[in-house]
Every structure is written in structure tokens, then in C-alpha cells.
Amino acid sequence: xxxxxxxxxxxxxxxxxxxxxxxxxxxxxxxxxxxxxxxxxxxxxxxxxxxxxxxxxxxxxxxxxxxxxxxxxxxxxxxxxxxxxxxxxxxxxxxxxxxxxxxxxxxxxxxxxxxxxxxxxxxxxxxxxxxxxxxxxxxxxxxxxxxxxxxxxxxxxxxxxxxxxxxxxxxxxxxxxxxxxxxxxxxxxxxxxxxxxxxxxxxxxxxxxxxxxxxxxxxxxxxxxxxxxxxxxxxxxxxxxxxxxxxxxxxxxxxxxxxxxxxxxxxxxxxxxxxxxxxxxxxxxxxxxxxxxxxxxxxxxxxxxxxxxxxxxxxxxxxxxxxxxxxxxxxxxxxxxxxxxxxxxxxxxxxxxxxxxxxxxxxxxxxx
Length: 368
Prior knowledge:
The chain is an alpha+beta fold. It is 21% helix and 35% strand. Strands 6-7-8-3-9-10 form a 6-stranded mixed β-sheet, with helices on both faces. Strands 15-19-16-17-18 form a 5-stranded antiparallel β-sheet. The protein is globular, with a radius of gyration of 22 Å.
């Protein structure tokens, strides 16, 4: 099942002109406020009729020059920034309301198990925390039996503890679900943790799109992601947890020791390493407090308008991004193809930048 999306829509002095495809997995739509992210998901949901658009899902035409399919016919689940639960209904009743829209009979037991909300069923929305409301909203969207799930800044209104609470459930949904999921966010940590593909927007246009590992590590994406948010996404396997709080992860290029890894041994996780936290050395370092040292090769050098430069490195087939000064590029004589060592501090990778790992869920997968 894939979504084909092409739109041109004028809003005063702003014109949205965007095309992309989204397949199974999570496609992140990322951009600054006002770049057109919410307009895109509203057009897909049928809440907005664009001036010109061709939108289809798995061969079903939502919108073209002669067709505009009503929202209730699109089989699209939508999770908003604010949960938008019915305040006069209990959690159970909010969930059951969605069942009437499904194409086949279902019960809510499977989604209650996935989202761990059995203890909330008798409560009303005004008694729930922000994270609990979003879990219920996500459950309601899934129970409508959608062919596509839209999530528009679902964690933006939550504080850090509530985000930490709900992110593992999104990890689990991504692992088990075969749905195409369109995830709108301005949080790089969320996108890096959840997305398989990424569409970068700037001023109503697609600046870049592709697999998350390629887009995030591309120096050309730094102006959109932000200098302090730029960094690479890496795949790793948890191999060891030590009593001092450090965990050992296996990467293609070697091992990393990091703090705050909660995934069990054997779990496959992903992590984001900020470019500003990567040091470069021409020789194997000795006598450093930092123990994470990976051999790498320079593949790209991009200078900015200021004194900085972004260096893309190949580390056994994975890309690491480093941000150094232009002066360092000269003093190290950095050139394409040069071999060196990338150094990453164990304390530099935040817990928010580490996924909780692949988790097996005991339920009937055909429900998703």
C-alpha cells in the first residue's frame, strides 16, 4: 500500500507545491512552522480541498481534477496534536465509537493491549494525562480500520516525561504495523527515532527526501534541520549492559559504549549522534576519556557561511556526520577519501535519541 501525493495550493502569499510517495513504515514530514506540513495532512484526510492535487492510496483516488472523495470514504486515521476525544464519553466508549467505521468486525482488546490502557477504560478524557489522552486517540484512530495513519505533531503538546511515556508505544506500533504512517513533526529526535523515510520542507517546497539514514546524514540538510540538530542516525545491536550504567552496542564499524540504553540485550535499536559531538583525529587516539573510536573515511565536505564545516564520513557502510571549524579542515588537511578516526563521547548521546528497540507483541497482527 502506498500513498502518491502531489499538490499545488495557494494560501495568500504562500504557495505549497509538493510531491512525494509514502509506502509502508513511517514517512516523516519535517519543516519549520509555516512550511506547509499541516496543509499536507489535511489535504490527504479530505479536510482541505486543494486548488490542484493528485492524491491516491493503493490505487484509490482521493483527489484529482475530477474527483474529491469525502473524508469518511478515505479510510484514513488521523491523530491530532490535541487528542480531540469526546469529553462526554468514557475511554471505552471513545474507542468503540471508531469501530463503526471499520471495513470488517473488530473488538478493541488488541489495541488496549498494545497501548496498555486497560486501566483507563472507565475514565473520561478530563481525568487523563496528556500522554494517556494521546494513547487513547491513537487507539481510536487504529480501531477505525484505516489504510493510512496520519499523525500531526502528536507529541508537540506534551512535556518531556509524557513524551518519554508515549514514544515506546509508537516504537511498538511501527514495529508491528504494516500501515503507511505519515508523521508530521518539528522534533528531530522524534523523527530520527521513528521514521523510515523523510521529506524535508522549506517554504512550501520539498528540499530533500529519501531514507532517514541518508537524509539526516547529508550535510546539505543542515540548514533545514538546524546546526545544533544535525547528526546521523545509526543502526546498532545491544550486546551488553554493565553495572556502572554503560551499555555496549555493536555497529557495522565497531562498538559503542553509551549511557541510558534501556533496550534488552539482542535488541536492534537506532540512535542519533549529533554532528557537534563527533571529534576527528588523523591518528588512533590514546589517553582519552572518550572510549568510542571508529575508523572512517571522508566522503563529503560542506562549508557553511560561517566558520564551520560539515564532514560526512563512511564508517563501514554507515554515514556519520561531524561538524568542525573550517580552520580544522585546513589544519587536518581533510580531503575526500582521507582515512581518520571519529570519536564519540559516551555521555553525548541523549536517551531521547535512542530507540527502545524491537519488541515482540503478543496479539493477532492481522488486526493492524
